[in-house]
Write a sequence for this structure.
């Protein structure tokens, strides 16, 4: 099975069958805290998406007030903050004044390091040149654009509200507003997609020299309209063999064009342009999640907010934190996380760090599993790191699951 955008949370289902959002990778990231803000609003729900969002845009002002109050409620001991990520949903439905208010509130509540990475997701069709200028003035210094495709036919299948021309205009407007750090999201593995049509999307993206590319494989999540259409045979999913070929082509093509793969689905033009915020989720680094359905992780304690805007605002208005549940990860769960998360990384698992943290011998615990996948050329040991090869990346979930069986 090949990893996709939604497979980013597969490992957490194994642990306790709950959803966790916004996960990416970097082994060497500093231990500063990251802050994630979930903006749960969309013009309409995309047919494939099961991230939490609603389409009632009239309550945005009240929601922002609640979000500001939640920032002030956070009482967890945290280190300095060096990343803020505003995701969703569609954060670009908020005006620059709202975004500026949120960033200012965070800066007043926490010790935010100067030159921190402040990322905002935007969707074409919801942002204007004036908005871009306002977001930049508010403090946003990294833009992530949900392009998904430069084909109108593909965008229509994905039920996106924008056209390919809208996407092009959005990227150009972001550049004109002065944003020098831009990431683009793309989706592949669509029905009947070929290497030629996917190559068109990649080449179209590279024309704008983005600093970052996220290439997610389409997956069919339970209870989404697209999955229901698939079940009723209104279309036929691309075969696993063909999606695997597209996966291999993506990594090869982007490497040839100067983009470094640092995680299964993510590529950067340099080490400096990797997503600093998203890398925290792979490195046992603390992060605070704000907004409905957002997750927090501090000192091996994970908590997540209620998955309802109305319940979220009701809790806040009552002076209560909107936390739905909290759990302390035991040693086994921590080991599972490290394996699943680190095997998604190009750097892989640092065996010495693993042994120090868990007081086990990596070779004694997993040596025969490593030997098995080394013989298949899916794993290699390099400089004390257990890493997946480019071929192994295609099967990272299955390989990680085999490691987990030994815990």
């Amino acid at each position: 099975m090949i990893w996709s955008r939604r497979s980013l949370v597969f490992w957490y289902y194994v642990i306790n069958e709950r959803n966790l959002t916004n996960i990416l990778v970097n082994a060497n990231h500093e231990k500063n805290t990251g802050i994630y803000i979930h903006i749960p609003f969309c013009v309409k729900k995309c047919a494939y998406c099961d991230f939490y969002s609603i389409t009632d845009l009239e309550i945005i002002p009240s929601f922002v007030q609640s979000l500001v109050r939640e920032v002030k409620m956070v009482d967890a001991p945290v280190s300095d903050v060096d990343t803020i990520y505003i995701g969703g949903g569609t954060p670009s439905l908020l005006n620059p004044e709202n975004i500026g208010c949120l960033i200012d509130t965070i800066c007043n509540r926490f010790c935010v390091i100067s030159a921190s990475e402040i990322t905002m997701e935007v969707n074409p069709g919801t942002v204007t040149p004036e908005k871009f200028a306002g977001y930049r003035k508010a403090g946003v210094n990294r833009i992530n654009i949900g392009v998904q495709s430069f084909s109108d036919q593909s965008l229509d299948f994905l039920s996106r509200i924008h056209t390919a021309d809208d996407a092009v205009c959005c990227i150009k407007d972001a550049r004109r507003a002065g944003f020098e750090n831009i990431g683009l999201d793309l989706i592949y593995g669509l029905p009947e997609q070929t290497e030629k049509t996917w190559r068109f999307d990649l080449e179209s993206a590279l024309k704008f020299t983005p600093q970052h590319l996220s290439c997610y494989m389409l997956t069919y999540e339970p209870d989404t309209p697209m999955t229901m259409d698939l079940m009723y045979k209104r279309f036929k999913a691309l075969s696993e063999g063909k999606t695997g070929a597209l996966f291999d082509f993506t990594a090869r093509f982007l490497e040839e064009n100067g983009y470094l793969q640092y995680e299964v689905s993510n590529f950067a033009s340099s080490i400096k342009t990797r997503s600093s915020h998203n890398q925290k989720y792979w490195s046992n680094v603390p992060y605070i999640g704000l907004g409905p359905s957002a997750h927090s992780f501090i000192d091996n304690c994970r908590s997540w907010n209620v998955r309802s805007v109305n319940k979220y605002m009701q809790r806040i208005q009552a002076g209560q934190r909107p936390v739905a549940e909290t759990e302390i990860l035991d040693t086994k769960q921590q080991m599972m996380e490290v394996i699943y998360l680190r095997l998604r990384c190009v750097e892989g698992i640092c065996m010495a760090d693993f042994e120090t943290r868990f007081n086990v011998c990596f070779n004694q615990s997993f040596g025969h599993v490593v030997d098995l996948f080394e013989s298949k050329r899916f794993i290699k040991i390099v400089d004390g790191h257990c890493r997946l090869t480019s071929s192994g990346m295609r099967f990272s979930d299955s390989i990680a699951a085999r490691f987990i069986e030994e815990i």
In short: The first strand starts at residue 33 and ends at 39.
